[in-house]
Specification:
By secondary structure, the protein is an alpha/beta fold. About 35% of the residues lie in helices and about 15% in strands.
């Protein structure tokens, strides 16, 4: 026999079978043994109820007498007995004076085999009800006006209204689970005789299997006005059930004269403590007409100051152990963290560890009997900071060794690691930039179906020495790369002046056409070229420029200084040119003619490089190259064909040529774009820099301790991340990318 009831609609009937099976298990009946007569009689009673179950009819629609736009409330009833726990969820629909209740889902569970008290079972039933209500609400497709949870347990109501920490861990954890999804005000009390969930918690010889029973229609008071619903005459305030037993220990504690938390230096704290002790000693000398002590602090005074803070730190943390050692001189309890150290109190009242090197005459007494210090006390922190600074914020193993010569501190390495982590000097020294998430590709890299060299990246490389007669002169290469098709054009500049840069650009424009935009670094020659070109454009006839070019002017975009990663499109190609140049040139100093020839040959080679995967199969298409967009093939070779001049052919020629050109762009979109989509590094977002942050400007050309520090006075956000910022330093104002700015962990005065 198989029962499929995921909503628990007949759980009040099935719980009888679950209880019976648990009783058989408790009776320790083996599979080949006969059950007792009483258990067999219950089994027959349950079988007699099966025919009645066949007559049960439950409507699938929740609305029987109320319209579909009626207001809906959720009511959850929970209860428990010694045998089982139960939860039932009802929907209450109300439209005017018409009220209707219907069962949505129910769940029952037998009580554990191990004995559990009734209050605990009631609490577990409440947890069961909250989980069932959450499941029902997750699957409902309409909104609820409110929800109410009903229980007949006063203990559960008291626990929900009290602090869970006051009760046992069993109660506290389940209260937290209940209050994660419900509110205290949503829980109400209901008498046991009106609690519908009580029908699913115990064995009944005659359960009501009618579709009009309260198990399916809810209790009668839900049909009535809310003012008639059951309430407690007096709300429960607290309960002693499952209350934690606490033992309070009262002792007399004196506040320390010197507040250690106000000091940041170990030596300063000892000096202040020494002078306070000297002041008290001088007061006693004045009463006894003695000679007061003046002048700098003596070593004995500093040693007494140290011992004072040792005792104070030990009594703040190990007061129980010290009291036991002082009163009975017995060993501390095994549960104490000091048990394995064999602690004792010396004649000065300092808690020390009893080691095994007592008979060694070559050791100092501090090494034989190290001072025990708590790891998280301010005194210990100041002591470790002193040793950390004494050894120049480095030499960590030396610090560990020196501290262990005199002190016994739990988790010493971890404490020293925390000191280094919070040391401002170390944070400033070791800080590194946090690059933001790699930005999306600019529109110039994705401008498909545009002519080559519409968006151009410009940069210089060199210098290259050439022979002019008998003297050697320097030349520079000017690389202009199409950001979309990755085609390359190389010019030669005789100098780094603005006029030389303009002539190189004019040569490029004369051969390749006027670009829509230029991209370059912040070189002084580029900035000057932009300024002079703008002045020349103002003198030219704008209408003539509009007729001559696609746009009346060319936009120029500058990358921030010291950001070669933003110009990776041309930086990578410069490396390829340099490697090829070293192979092509036959001597160290070529002539101008040889240099120009070599750069032109390298230009052709780079424009023949594959942009996509190179297929090996013969039937596959050749890899896409920049020359496909410039020359129509990878090497520029095209077969000669007879040109027909008839009218029909000429009319079809232009669309046909455009269609052939678009084939390369379709391959560019299909094969090349997926290769540049994935981010190769800088995958996660970081906290963006903001105005007022203190940063270090990274400059790998100088030693780290020479890197300037400054304050961010301007940030340029992009896609939720700061890509570049303006930093004000003592020597001026600089614009830098965020990959060259390391944020210092310092707090401003307002914070």
């Amino acid at each position: 026999m198989t029962i499929y009831d995921p909503l628990g609609l007949i759980d009040h009937f099935l719980i009888m079978l679950k209880i019976l099976l648990q009783e058989v298990w408790r009776a320790n009946v083996q599979w080949d043994e006969t059950v007792s007569e009483s258990l067999f009689e219950k089994w027959r009673e349950w079988l007699c109820l099966l025919p009645k179950l066949e007559q049960l009819r439950i409507p699938r629609c929740y609305h029987q007498i109320t319209p579909t736009d009626a207001v809906a409330d959720l009511h959850v009833f929970v209860d428990s007995s010694e045998s089982a726990m139960s939860a039932a969820v009802f929907l209450r629909f109300m439209k005017g004076r018409i009220v209707e209740c219907v069962l949505v889902a129910a769940k029952t569970r037998v009580a554990p085999l191990k004995y559990t008290s009734i209050p605990r079972l009631e609490l577990q039933a409440a947890v069961l009800g909250t989980k069932l209500a959450a499941t029902v609400m997750k699957n409902l497709t309409f909104e609820l006006l409110k929800r109410t949870f009903w229980t007949d347990s006063r203990n559960v109501l008291c626990w929900l209204r009290a602090d869970g920490k006051r009760y046992s861990s069993f109660v506290g954890s389940r209260i937290s689970a209940i209050l994660e999804t419900t509110e205290q005000r949503e829980w109400r009390w209901v008498p046991t005789q009106l609690n519908v969930a009580d029908d699913g918690t115990r064995w009944r010889s005659r359960p009501n299997l009618s579709s009009n029973s309260r198990w399916y229609k809810g209790p009668e008071f839900l049909i009535q006005d809310e003012g008639t619903w059951p309430i407690l005459a007096q709300e429960p305030i607290s309960t002693e059930e499952e209350m934690r037993h606490r033992v309070f220990f009262h002792c007399k504690a004196s506040e320390p004269v010197i507040d250690v938390s106000k000091f940041s230096s170990w030596r300063r704290m000892l000096a202040v403590t020494g002078y306070v002790h000297r002041f008290c000693s001088n007061l006693q000398c004045r009463i006894r007409e003695g000679v007061p002590i003046t002048g700098p602090l003596l070593s004995d005074e500093l040693r007494k100051a140290e011992e004072y803070h040792y005792r104070q730190a030990q009594r703040d943390v190990y007061q129980k152990e010290i009291a036991l050692l002082e009163t009975s001189n017995a060993a501390v309890q095994k549960t104490s963290s000091l048990y394995k150290l064999s602690p004792f109190i010396d004649k000065l009242g300092v808690l020390r560890m009893r080691g095994r090197t007592t008979v060694c005459s070559y050791l100092h007494s501090d090494a034989k009997y190290p001072v025990i210090l708590p790891p998280d006390h301010p005194v210990t922190s100041l002591l470790l900071v002193y040793h950390h600074e004494k050894y120049m914020h480095r030499n960590h193993e030396i610090v560990v060794n020196e501290v262990r010569q005199k002190y016994s501190i739990f988790r010493l390495r971890q404490s020293l690691a925390n000191i280094r982590r919070n040391c401002q000097w170390c944070k400033n020294r070791d800080v590194l930039p946090q690059p933001p998430e790699m930005a999306d590709l600019p529109a110039a890299r994705l401008s498909a179906y545009t002519r080559p060299f519409a968006h151009v990246g410009v940069d210089y490389f060199g210098p290259i020495e050439v022979l002019v007669g008998r003297r050697a002169e320097k030349r520079w290469g000017v690389i202009l790369t199409c950001l979309t098709t990755r085609a390359v054009h190389v010019e030669v500049a005789n100098s780094l002046t603005t006029s030389s840069c303009i002539m190189a650009l004019q040569n490029f424009i004369a051969r390749r056409g006027t670009p829509v935009s230029f991209y370059s670094d912040c070189g002084t020659n580029f900035v000057g070229a932009k300024r002079m070109l703008q002045e020349l454009y103002q003198k030219f006839d704008q209408h003539q420029l509009a007729r001559e070019f696609v746009t009346s002017s060319t936009a120029w975009h500058f990358n921030p200084p010291a950001s070669p990663h933003m110009g990776g499109s041309w930086e990578r190609l410069i490396g390829s040119i340099k490697r090829n140049l070293s192979e092509v040139l036959s001597r160290k100093r070529p002539t101008d003619e040889e240099l120009r020839n070599a750069l032109t040959v390298i230009e052709g080679v780079l424009n023949s490089r594959p942009l996509t995967h190179v297929p090996i199969e013969d039937e596959a298409a050749a890899a896409l190259t920049p020359n496909h967009f410039l020359l129509g093939s990878s090497d520029g070779s095209k077969p000669l064909t007879m040109i027909e001049t008839d009218t029909a052919t000429l009319r079809r020629g232009w669309p046909t040529s455009q269609w052939l050109a678009n084939l390369f762009w379709k391959r560019w979109v299909r094969d090349y774009l997926p290769d540049i989509t994935r981010r190769t590094k800088w995958h996660k977002k970081v906290t963006p820099l903001k105005v007022g942050d203190i940063v270090v400007i990274v400059d790998h050309e100088h030693p780290r301790n020479c890197w300037p520090k400054g304050r961010v006075i301007g940030a340029v956000p992009s896609g939720g991340q700061t890509r570049k910022a303006v930093v004000q330093t003592s020597s001026g104002i600089y614009e830098r990318p965020t990959v060259k700015l390391a944020l210092l962990d310092v707090r401003r005065e307002a914070e």
